[in-house]
Write a structure and sequence with these properties.
Elements lengths: L4 H10 L4 E3 L2 E7 L3 H18 L4 E5 L2 E6 L9 H15 L1
Antiparallel strand pairs: 1-2, 2-4, 3-4
InterPro entries: PCD_sf, Pterin_deHydtase
Protein name: 4a-hydroxytetrahydrobiopterin dehydratase
Pfam family, one: Pterin_4a
Length: 93
Amino acid sequence: MKLTPSQLRTLPQALPKWKIIDNQLHRTLKFQSFEDTWGFLTKLAMRSHLMKHHPKIINCYTDVDIYLTTHDENGITELDTRLAKRIDKYVAE
């Protein structure tokens, strides 16, 4: 189910590294090396597959932009926030 306006207002506290842009959660990442980038993207691909929820990913060498939204709901859902939290854990590793 799509998050309510009230829930969306609390997202910056729960996900401080993410921004809401055009009904999507967005985060930009910069890795130290191409190998680090692809190590992260491999983890993200596997997690996304297991969750059956696939983000939009734009990658240029060590730069990665991630966009999360639930197209069936036309907005941000709990599934997006769960994946965002998992992504944050992967980045922290």
